[in-house]
What we know:
Elements: H1 2-18, H2 25-89, H3 91-118, H4 121-159, H5 163-234
Helix pairs in contact: 1-2, 1-5, 2-3, 2-4, 2-5, 3-5, 4-5
Amino acid sequence: MRLQHLLGLLVLINVKVHGQEDNQLPVLQQDKSAVRLKLEHWLKEKVGGLTNEIQETNYDLKSTLENHIKHGRLSIERTTTEALNNLDTRKQLIGTQCYQQSVQKLESAKLSSINEFLNCKNLTDAIHDVNQMIHETVNISTKALHNLEEMLIGLSECIVSDFFDAAQCMTNYIWKVINDVRRSKSEMSTYYELMKQLIVKFKAEINECLYQPSQNLKMQANLIMDSSRKCATKV
């Protein structure tokens, strides 16, 4: 009702200043258009803020997952690099042939560990959960933009109405979009909590997925080092 009150005051001001002659009707029409433009700006600002918030949240969620996966791979890479460095110190002792064979075995063990890590069920489930969450939030954004488009069309249609009818028309639309934005905000608040829980969950799942491949790689590296010494005695 506040909008109707403001529009009513606008009418009274125009009548007082310009009189009630027919040639003043364009002034009222202009005032309605000005109000509509302000409302459109407000609507775009609110919905735009919501969609930007959704995009930033999705980016942060996806980046967090990707960074944890990246760190997992780097952990496996570091284990392999340490083993290769140890092997380098023995290159002269074990000979070129045994050295090259050991390097190939280490590289193969590394790739096997990375593959085991990336195909861990907990990790693939975490990726699926994140993608599903992003899909749901994108739906909220899409719905908000669709509602905004309907609001803008509706406000334009309000302008052709009688001035007080236009006030009621605009009021109806503005309250509808306020409720839509509030509902979307509420949905996003729920998703924010779920995202926080999801981040904690997939951190634990990634660490769990990384544990066994890392242990296997360390064991393989030790076996390869022993094998390189045995190889040297045979050559």
